[in-house]
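[[Sequence with tokens]]
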Amino acid sequence: MAFELPKLPYAYDALEPHVDARTMEIHHTKHHNGYTSKLNAAIEGTPLSGKGIEEILKGLDMKNTAVRNNGGGYFNHCLFWEIMGPDAGGNPSG
């Protein structure tokens, strides 16, 4: 299973004035895309290919720096895009 760069659930400019559109675009298309490509390269032809990111990270060999760094970066950024948003935030509750 090759991982893909997820589409953002909002426009690059949706977080302005807090985060500008150009920063969001670069972070998504360059930074997160880099983690995605490098993760795919690190797992290609290994028993990890075909597994989901959560399964890969749960059984992670911490000595495998390519999978550790790029898998972690990929997963963290997927989470980052989901928890940030124009209608997200506010005061914690519960």
